[in-house]
Amino acid sequence: MSDGISEARFLRSLRPIGWGDWCVESFNEYRLRIAPLLPQFPVDVLQEWLYRHYGDAISDYGWLGLEGFTFEKQRWSTEQILTGVGTWPGGDRTESWTAQLKSNPYSCGSWLVTAMIASGTWPVPILVLENASGLQMPNGLRLASPYHLMEGHHRFGYLRALRDDPRWTPAAEHDIWLVRPDRELVLDFWPMNLDFDV
Questions:
Q1: 112 and 34 in a common domain
Q2: Residue 87 sits in the same domain as residue 168
Q3: Element containing residue 76 per DSSP (H, E)
Q4: Tally of domains in the chain
């Protein structure tokens, strides 16, 4: 994308039709529409990140140039994930999920809790941004380095609980999607803040 307006239009084109309403397009409809725009995105990344969390994905990471992302599926150990992957500086959103699972495993009535306790891992890989260069948001907030958790905060917190609580045993390794942005496409402003007519 050559300018902020073009990038903002592109990011808005990724919004699920009906997003924020009761009647949003199905994931299959979304995938058929969006996959040609982001052909390098794995299907589960489209579904778990952009389709289910469009608002957070775009507001937190739209400035990174999604169209330049590359993905590599890797298997990391529990300790490599929990000690090497950082979360948002100044506010670890995963700690509350760890505490909740440890204090009352079935309090949230979550299929995810049940699945992770049974298997020791998550059903879908988390997204981990490779950030050796110390990227910072347009407002100056630095992302965790060398690896930043982009998506999967519940899963990350639950994995920590599985490791810390003697009632459970986490799997030895877990799939992750390692995300690498194209530095040439990273912006120093939020394109979605631009005022324009679509």
A1: no
A2: yes
A3: strand 70-77
A4: 2
Distances (CA, A) of 128 to 15, 24, 123, 197: 22, 27, 16, 33
Q: Give the 3-state secondary structure of 11-27.
A: HHHCCCCCCCCCCCCCH
Does pTM surpass 0.70?
yes
Per-residue pLDDT of the chain (198 residues; tens, 9 = 90+): 446 678 888 999 999 999 888 889 999 999 999 999 999 999 999 999 999 999 999 989 999 999 999 999 999 999 999 999 998 766 667 777 677 777 777 665 688 888 999 999 999 999 999 999 889 998 888 899 999 999 999 999 999 999 999 999 999 999 999 999 999 999 888 886 654 444
Closest listed residue to residue 112, CA positions, set 91, 97, 99: 97
